[in-house]
Structures are given as structure tokens and as C-alpha cells.
Design a protein that fits this description.
The chain has 4 helices and 11 strands, in the order βααβββββαβββββα. It is α+β, with helices and mostly antiparallel strands. β2 and β3 form a beta hairpin. The structure holds coenzyme A. The site of coenzyme A has 24 residues, from α1, β6 and α3.
């Protein structure tokens, strides 16, 4: 079991964040997405967190800014995308820590709604449920049970509905037909 801690990213971490995303996903879509989001200023640096073990970055979580738009309102929220733990360090609770510390950081900054495209067997344990329950829809084709939303404080989702608008980088880097932020590997 590795000892690790979680902190916000600093500029020196950028190559290692790219690397851990590329290695854990086995392709570089998410790594390039993170770079593009950073370049476009699409996230608050306080909401890019790394897991560090012995001076090495072994995990990363990012919460880019999104809005949930309807005719009445554009509600600010964040996406949880991507989340990654280096293959040598998976299933040790590092993903859980990144999510929990990340939610705390989101609350501190004032974001109370998180949207994820991810495995329906993984994210509900952190409070996520299908976004369709709230009338919140994705701007791309996605199965109902993998497009999920979570309220970080009670009542955060009261009256909130509409279509999620992601930063342009998602479409440019990954393609409108794909869903970054998903868990891509099958359950082992
Ligand atoms: C998914 C991931 C972030 C989880 O991080 P982790 O540190 O391994 O997870 P934790 O140790 O906190 O939690 C372990 C639990 O997650 C589950 N889990 C791990 N990988 C999973 C996957 N690909 N699909 C579904 N569940 C998964 C484990 O089965 C375990 O469940 P249990 O507690 O019921 O036994 C990590 O495995 C990873 O980086 N995978 C590759 C990239 C990816 O798919 N990222 C997610 C979407 S952005």
C-alpha cells in the first residue's frame, strides 16, 4: 500500500499530469484534453488535484467549468473529467481520496453541482445518480445511466434542469461523438 497525499497542481506538475493521464488511459485523448482545457483557462487551478507518492505524481483529477442551460437560467457547475490513477497504484483508495478532496475544494470555491460521464458501478458510491432524474441532459449521445450528476450540498439541484454546455476543448480534442471522463476499462 503506497502512502500518498493530495494537493493542487503547480506548473511543474504539468508534464507528469499529461503522462499519468496518457499511461492510465492507454491513449492520449484525456492527456491532450487536460492540456487544452488548461490552455483555454477552462478550469480553476485549485480544481486540478494531484496524488503524490514519494515525489511522484500517481493520480490526477480535474473539474472543468460547465454550465447547465435552460431557457430560464445558466447554472454554473463543474464536470468531473478526467479522473486517473496510475495502473501500479489502482484500487488503493487513491481515486476515492482524489474525489473526496476534490469535492471539498469544489465546495470551498462555491461549485455545488458536479456532472460525470462514468461507470454506473463506480460513481453512485460518491452520491452520483442519473442526470435524467433531474431533467439534465448531455449535449452528446450517452447512455442514461452513465451520465450522472451529484449535489455537493443539499438542495443544490432544486429547480436545476437543462442541457450541459462543456468547454469547446472537449469537442475539439476528443470529438463530439465521444465522452471524455468515462471509465474506459472494464471492471476487473
Ligand atoms: C477508475 C480509477 C480512477 C479508480 O481509481 P482507484 O484509485 O483505482 O480507485 P479506488 O481505490 O478509490 O476504488 C477502488 C474501487 O473502484 C473500482 N474500480 C476501479 N477501476 C474501475 C473501473 N475501471 N470501472 C469500475 N470500477 C472500477 C474497484 O472495483 C474498487 O471497487 P470496490 O471498492 O467495490 O472494490 C482508476 O482505476 C483509473 O485511473 N482507471 C483508468 C482511467 C479511468 O478509467 N478513469 C476514470 C474515468 S475519468
Amino acid at each position: 500500500m503506497a502512502s500518498f497525499f493530495i494537493r493542487t497542481e503547480v506548473p511543474e506538475d504539468i508534464p507528469a499530469i499529461h503522462e499519468v493521464n496518457a499511461v492510465a488511459f492507454a491513449h492520449d485523448d484525456e492527456a491532450r484534453l487536460v492540456d487544452a482545457l488548461r490552455e483555454n483557462g477552462d478550469f480553476n487551478p485549485e480544481l486540478s488535484l494531484v496524488a503524490v507518492s514519494r515525489d511522484r505524481i500517481i493520480g490526477h483529477i480535474l473539474f472543468p467549468e460547465i454550465t447547465i442551460e435552460s431557457e430560464e437560467a445558466a447554472v454554473p457547475a463543474v464536470a468531473l473529467a478526467p479522473l486517473v490513477v496510475h495502473p501500479d497504484f489502482q484500487c488503493m483508495g487513491i481515486g476515492r481520496s482524489l474525489i473526496e478532496v476534490g469535492f471539498e475544494a469544489c465546495r470551498d470555491i462555491g461549485y455545488h453541482i458536479v456532472v460525470v460521464v462514468g461507470h454506473p458501478g463506480y460513481y453512485p458510491r460518491y452520491g452520483f445518480s442519473p442526470a435524467s432524474n433531474y431533467g439534465i441532459v448531455a449535449p452528446f449521445e450517452v447512455a442514461d445511466d452513465v451520465f450522472m450528476v451529484n449535489a455537493l450540498i443539499p438542495e443544490a439541484l432544486a429547480g436545476v434542469h437543462g442541457r450541459v454546455r462543456y468547454p469547446k476543448a472537449f469537442e475539439m480534442v476528443v470529438g463530439a461523438d465521444k465522452n471524455p471522463g468515462r471509465i474506459t476499462k472494464p471492471l476487473s
